[in-house]
Design brief:
alpha/beta; globular; 598 residues; eight-stranded mixed β-sheet; binds ligand UGB
């Protein structure tokens, strides 16, 4: 009360709300006016931010927290009444007729899509010092994830424009959710690289705010241990993306522009865009309101399982069950072994790769009701079995894939399963943890993420008729991986199988020790036999035919130890680097027709 006169009328309202919500401990230690007055005002600035950035405000946050903390203390099962079963979805096989048909539909539809990247996470499991989207997806060209994503969206935009024969050209909007941990770095990465070729106005950055930490079971907010005038905050999770998109007005803009699809994706999956065109095709063909991309899942993998949940009251939904909840849910519902592989060697529940395609119209209708609020959860670490004290403060969290939880049963919620080699190779784990992953389960490290790109590209080349040599097994940072030829290309060279196939002809072969980087859009590979390193770049109007035997000493892979601090962190975490001994490198900067051979 002594300090009330320092506050604006809005701040007084916030103070009353905090008192009503049992939060007096936040300011009962405050000294009389005249001491720390600026910090007291700063405290209420923070309260105002926390209040306005949460759907329903802080009071609603505290109420939900009390309920969820009580449920957690009581050991209540969030799946009470639900029985899991294996859902059925669309299964795609890369390169077959069905896949090609979906790809074509998808490319046609792509000009009606907007892309949303969730990149607010720090990547604690990876332990990398910078932002994850700045990491090279592969080190043959050094293309970072953000560049790969932007170039893929631009290539899709171009391809869609061509297929629609130039009717109604539309730029594909690209939104990136950042957080205080990643915002400045993301902006700097874009600005210092000329937005990787995208028009700056095409990209929208949305910053998620952290949420207040909870100190006890009464949801008393925790003060920052280093500043008694600040509430401690922690990330709220990727589920924030929905309320941010809604409150920013972007969804309405997109709807007015005639868009139909919103695609959500995560920060470090170098394969993703190989699966995107066909998946949009599935959404469009099946009129899915929600389409989640999935891959076969090894039991106990740190990826959620897509599950059909049927309630005793008859309700049913197809939803992701997060990896830490799947095993207890199964054990509690008649699967005594929990999360285990079946005779196929995989879990019967497809793995959620958290790539979602939502149909914009129904999405906006739903958000009008919810404001984008997503069902939350809390995960307190208790000091002991009495569950009265926490080891450290906790907070509510939410996940973007929980969006369907509030949908009416009539909503069309589906999923699309693709081969892992094609669609999913995230970079999440640091070398030490990756090396400890049970044999047969994926490492999800910088090493496996890069090797997966070479593998996918080699397998795609094989499907397109190229004789690509078998891989060799090699160990980097304690991880045993397949090393395929290092074949990479820019998205504008080929995003769909049809496009890639049309640029390869005759009898082609590539040896295992080879490196090949194709950068220009009109580079045609004909009767090429490559044993070494080949790098070709060409401007748009240059048509280049590459063929004949090309042989040189090539690029050699050298091991790097992850503890070797003389080597840049980006390389250390993958455990190898290339020694560029000899290569054939050609850049075509002028329009015209050219032939390249040895
Ligand atoms: N992210 C944010 O933008 N904000 C946040 O507050 C937190 C994260 P993680 P996670 O595909 O393998 C997810 O940490 O959450 C971004 C799915 O929940 O990489 O453990 C962050 O930048 C799980 O079902 O993953 O697990 C990143 O881009 C499974 O599918 C993204 O959110 C798993 O991913 C994911 O964050 C997977």
């Amino acid at each position: 009360h002594n300090n009330l006169h320092l506050l604006s009328p809005q701040q007084v309202e916030l103070a009353k709300m905090l008192v009503e919500m049992g939060q007096t401990h936040l300011f009962e230690h405050w000294p009389d006016p005249g001491v720390d007055d600026d910090q007291k005002k700063a405290f209420f600035d923070q309260v105002a931010r926390l209040n306005s950035s949460y759907p329903g405000g802080l009071a609603s946050y505290i109420r939900t927290a009390r309920e969820l903390l009580a449920d957690s203390k009581a050991g209540k099962n969030p799946f009470d009444g639900f029985t899991p079963s294996v859902p059925s979805g669309e299964n795609l096989t890369y390169g077959d007729e069905n896949f090609i048909r979906y790809e074509e539909i998808g490319v046609r539809e792509a000009q009606n899509a907007a892309f949303v990247l969730v990149a607010g996470g720090l990547g604690e499991r990876l332990g990398y010092n910078g932002i994850k989207v700045a990491l090279p997806a592969e080190t043959t060209t050094g293309t970072c994830f953000l560049q790969l994503y932007i170039e893929s969206i631009l290539a899709l935009q171009e391809a869609s424009f061509r297929l629609n024969q130039g009717n109604h050209q539309q730029e594909i909007p690209f939104a990136i959710m950042t957080s205080d941990d990643t915002h400045a770095h993301t902006l700097k990465l874009l600005e210092s690289n000329a937005y990787f070729g995208m028009r700056p106005s095409q990209i929208k950055l949305l910053k998620q705010e952290k949420v207040a930490c909870l100190g006890d079971n009464d949801a008393r907010l925790a003060l920052d241990p280093n500043n008694k005038y600040q509430i401690q905050t922690k990330p709220h999770g990727h589920g924030d993306v929905h309320s941010l998109l809604y409150s920013s007005g972007h969804l309405n803009e997109w709807q007015k522009a005639g868009l139909r699809w919103v695609l959500f994706f995560q920060d470090t999956n170098g394969l993703l865009f190989k699966a995107i065109p066909a998946s949009i095709g599935v959404s469009a063909s099946k009129n899915y309101h929600v389409n989640s991309l999935a891959v076969p899942r090894k039991a106990k993998d740190a990826i959620g399982g897509i599950t059909r949940l049927t309630h005793t009251d008859g309700r049913t939904m197809v939803i992701n069950v997060e990896y830490n909840q799947l095993d207890p849910l199964l054990r509690a519902t008649g699967y005594p072994d929990g999360d285990v592989n079946n005779e196929t060697g995989y879990s019967p529940f497809p793995g959620n790769i958290n790539q979602l395609i939502l149909e914009l119209g129904p999405y906006i209708e739903e958000l009008k009701k919810t404001g984008g609020a997503i069902k939350e959860f809390v995960n307190p670490k208790y000091k002991d079995a009495s569950k009265t004290l926490f080891k450290s403060s906790t907070r509510l969290e939410c996940m973007m894939q929980d969006y369907p939880k509030t949908l009416a049963p009539s909503a069309r919620v589906g999923f699309t399963v693709m081969d892992t080699w094609l669609a999913y190779a995230p970079v999440k784990n640091n070398p030490e943890d990756a090396a400890k992953v049970p044999k047969g389960n994926p490492y999800h490290s910088a090493t496996s993420g890069e090797m997966a790109i070479y593998r996918a590209n080699s397998l795609i080349f094989r499907k397109a008729g190229v004789k690509v040599d078998d891989p060799v097994q090699q160990v980097f940072n304690g991880q045993d991986v397949e090393v395929w030829p290092r074949i990479v290309w820019k998205p504008k060279w080929g995003l769909t199988f049809g496009e890639i196939k049309s640029k390869i002809s005759g009898n082609c072969s590539i040896s295992q020790r080879s490196t090949m980087a194709i950068k220009g859009p009109d580079i045609f590979i004909q009767d090429l036999s490559l044993d070494g390193a080949l790098l070709v770049d060409a401007v748009e109007e240059a048509e280049v035919k590459v063929g004949g035997p090309i042989q040189n000493k090539g690029w050699i892979i050298e091991n790097v130890d992850y503890k070797d601090s003389s080597c840049p962190e980006e390389l250390r975490i993958r455990g190898f680097r290339f020694k560029k001994v000899e290569q054939l490198e050609k850049n075509y900067n002028e329009p015209g027709k050219f032939t390249l051979n040895a």
